[in-house]
Design a protein that fits this description.
The chain is built from ten helices and 13 strands. It is of the alpha/beta class and 293 residues long. The structure holds nicotinamide-adenine-dinucleotide.
């Protein structure tokens, strides 16, 4: 870290617990590679400390911060402005400080859309089925609508997130040209029909990662058509049960959530620095860090 000097600009990550995060590796690798005089540090900040944390962004003249649980919604009243991604999702994962004016963004959805684009799939004009309306599913639904998806069906099981699925569907119908609707996952026939209808299927439930590793919401390969694009937001493990079922069904385009994770960071990086993140280098550094664990 010899590049740190009196001019170094600080960017934070405020969440709790957060020490396991890959984001410091991601951003500091990119700053170093591009010779940018920034440093990215993680801070254990819970709900009680959040107001002071935001004050620190202003006092220390930080360029901004990432925000994760439990602060993604709670930070909103402390900010000056919200980008449309944050307005539609009611959540913020990136704060940008422009001369004391703090703007909140959500880059998870951008990360998803950009990763799919890199893999050769544009959401514009597509019919999408998204299962799960939490921290991943909501921004994916919102950004897909912003980027021109034609129809979005959002499914959730009957738990506390069902209301969130309905709220984001309403917001999409009000704020974008996409048509959004919801159904409950307990309605197996509706789920099967939606899989047959969709161009892109996103599993944003976390089923397939610990403690539900080895499990999937779709276990019968005959439910999946070969030309469906399947995106599982899980990235640990790299191959989930859903991805295995999809391979058995002969589905060609099947992806985990690693690219989305990197691209949401790249989108935040661009907001802070105006520069493109050197993604290949960053992925290499993350893989090396992974091996150390
Ligand atoms: P969350 O707790 O906010 O939401 C989980 C959603 O899944 C809810 O809608 C819930 O109703 C549903 N759900 C949970 N268990 C279920 C089950 N057994 N059956 C059916 N539905 C179920 O979580 P989140 O933050 O949205 O994370 C979801 C997954 O997405 C996790 O695996 C997480 O690691 C991943 N994620 C990936 C990225 C990325 O960049 N790739 C970003 C955020 C989250």
């Amino acid at each position: 870290m010899t590049r740190i000097d009196g001019h170094t600009i600080l960017i934070g990550l405020m969440a709790y617990p957060i020490r396991h995060s890959m984001s410091p590796t991601m951003h500091n690798t990119a700053f170093e590679a591009l010779n940018l005089n920034y440093a990215y540090l993680a801070f254990d900040i819970d709900g009680h400390q959040l107001a002071d944390g935001v004050k620190a962004i202003r006092t220390l003249d930080m360029r901004g911060s990432n925000v994760s649980m439990p602060n993604k919604q709670a930070i909103i009243p402390h900010l000056d402005k919200l980008d449309i991604s944050a307005k539609m999702t009611g959540a913020v994962n990136t704060v940008v400080n422009d001369d004391g004016v703090l703007t909140g963004y959500t880059t998870d959805g951008v990360g998803f859309v950009n990763d799919l684009k890199k893999k050769g799939h544009d959401v514009a004009g597509k019919k999408m089925l998204i299962v799960g309306a939490g921290g991943a599913g909501i921004p994916i639904a919102a950004q897909s609508a912003i980027e021109g998806a034609s129809d979005i069906r959002i499914a959730n099981r009957k738990d506390g997130h069902l209301k969130k699925a309905e709220e984001i569907a309403d917001s999409i119908n009000e704020n974008s040209g996409a048509v959004a609707s919801t159904f409950t996952l307990e309605d197996g026939e509706a789920f099967k029909a939606a899989l047959a209808w969709a161009d892109i299927y996103v599993d944003a439930t976390g089923v397939g990662m610990k403690p539900l590793e080895g499990k999937a919401l779709v276990n019968d390969p005959s439910w999946l058509k070969e030309d469906l694009v399947i995106y599982d937001t899980v990235y640990a493990p790299r191959t989930t049960k859903l991805m295995e079922v999809a391979k058995k069904a002969g589905v060609k385009n099947v992806y985990n959530g690693l690219g989305m994770m990197v691209e949401q960071g790249a989108a935040a990086f661009k907001l802070w620095t105006g520069q493109e993140m050197p993604i290949d280098l960053v992925e290499q550094a993350m893989a090396e860090k992974d091996k150390e664990k």
